[in-house]
Structure formats: structure tokens, C-alpha cells
Specification:
Length: 248
């Protein structure tokens, strides 16, 4: 079974443009996401999916220079971009990761993938409802589900926000959520604003590149002032009203 992580990334974030190429410890943010996911035991490949336009070519050039597979597609027709990338790499299962999660945890990814593999699911996530910190989001899709979504979704809003379409239309017995043992959903480990990047850089500065969720929690326990750097309510697109949010 070919299980592939697809990191969707773009330069055009309205809140924090070009953030996916922001420097963290000498490498672009999206580079860290890919290389952290490469540590997951259950992934066969990690690729990047970007919009096909001039603005996003720096991501493609970086990927080429670092031997990271990179594929292009529509910026707003996200299901087409993700499904097209999945077909290009002959994926049987797709693990979808957004390009604003430089603290993504390979162990968390493995846990969600494992839940997918042991059940008769088409979609498994850890965000519905969220209990992990915002920024450790993982969604696992069967290739059949992605194909069905690409074929049946007509509304342009849902073609961009296709996870919401899944939640509203896929039969509940085909979906599964993986919760953490306690609710950490109030923690911001994603990058939406400059202060989020400052927080992430502080974590990398203290823990290096090879850390896990429990290492960050331990650090925050010792230095709770770090969490104040980017303290604000989470406003991820996983929360409603989704039409007022933005997607990477």
C-alpha cells in the first residue's frame, strides 16, 4: 500500500504572505514540514503540492534543489490539486498536511495512519473535534474518496474547502476521529501570523529539529512564558464559519 503525505503549500496567504518559505534554523518552513514527516514510519513518500503560477515557483525551485517531489495544480480548486498529485505518485492513501504546520509530529501522523489502517474507514483525522494542538493536524483519505470528491463536488467553495464537504456528506460510519487523551486544542503551534513564526523559531532554537509533541509540552511546562508569544484564540479553517477563513 502506497501511503503518501501531500503537503499543500502556497505563497499567497493573505494574513502572512510567503510564510511557507520563511526561514527557520536555516531552512524554509515547508522544508521542515517535509523532513519531519519523512521520519514517520508508515509513510512511503512525502511530496509538495503547489499552485501552478509564477508566484509559487520559489517553492518549486526549493523542492527541486532538495530532491523533494513537487507537483502543481489549481490554487483554489484544491481537491483537483490534491487528487492530481495523488494520481501522479500512484498513492493508495493520502495524508494531507497543510503548509503552515512546521511543528508537525511524525508520531502523531503515524498514529492517525495506523487508525486508518486498522478500520474500515475512508477518512480519518484528528481535527473533528480537535484535541491536539493547532498545527498537528492530520487527515487521511483513501484514494477512492478523493476520486469521488473530485468527480462529484460542483460548488467552487467546496472544491476549495473539501474537508468540510466530507464532514457534511460522507456517511458517519466511514469517518473516524483520533482524539488525544486531553484537550490541547487551545495551543497554537501553527503559523498564521508573524508572532506564530516567532514562537516556532523559539521552539526550534531550544529543541533543535528533531522534537516531538511531548518535548514541546515539557518545554512549555518549564517556560510557560513562551506560549504568550502568540497567545490568541485559534482561528483555523477547521472551525466554522469556514467561508470566512482561508486555506493554504
Amino acid at each position: 500500500m502506497n501511503i503518501v503525505a501531500i503537503v499543500q503549500a502556497r505563497m499567497g496567504s493573505s494574513r502572512f504572505p510567503n510564510k511557507v518559505m520563511a526561514d527557520i534554523e536555516g531552512h524554509p518552513m515547508v522544508w521542515h514540514i517535509v523532513n519531519r514527516l519523512r521520519q514517520a514510519d508508515l509513510l512511503q513518500n512525502v511530496v509538495i503540492a503547489i499552485p501552478d503560477d509564477e508566484r509559487n515557483r520559489p517553492i518549486g525551485w526549493m523542492a527541486w534543489s532538495e530532491s523533494i517531489p513537487c507537483f502543481t495544480g489549481s490554487e483554489t480548486d484544491l481537491i483537483k490539486r490534491i487528487y492530481g498529485t495523488a494520481r501522479a505518485v500512484r498513492a493508495d492513501v493520502v495524508v494531507r498536511i497543510t503548509g503552515d504546520c512546521p511543528m508537525t509530529d511524525p508520531d502523531v501522523a503515524d498514529k492517525v495512519i495506523e487508525e486508518y489502517l486498522v478500520g474500515d474507514w475512508q477518512y480519518v483525522c484528528n481535527v473533528r473535534p480537535r484535541t491536539y494542538p493547532d498545527g498537528l493536524n492530520v487527515e487521511v483519505y483513501s484514494i477512492q474518496l478523493l476520486e469521488n470528491l473530485n468527480n462529484e463536488i460542483e460548488d467552487s467553495v467546496y472544491r476549495e474547502w473539501f474537508p468540510v464537504y466530507v464532514w457534511e456528506n460522507v456517511a458517519p460510519h466511514l469517518m473516524h476521529n483520533v482524539p488525544y487523551k486531553k484537550d490541547l486544542s487551545g495551543l497554537r503551534w501553527t503559523v498564521d501570523y508573524p508572532e506564530d513564526l516567532e514562537f516556532v523559531r523559539c521552539i526550534y532554537d531550544r529543541l533543535g529539529n528533531d522534537f516531538r509533541m511531548h518535548d514541546v509540552l515539557a518545554l512549555l511546562g518549564r517556560k510557560p512564558e513562551l506560549a504568550k508569544i502568540n497567545a490568541r484564540p485559534n482561528d483555523s479553517y477547521y472551525d466554522f464559519p469556514y467561508k470566512e477563513k482561508e486555506i493554504e
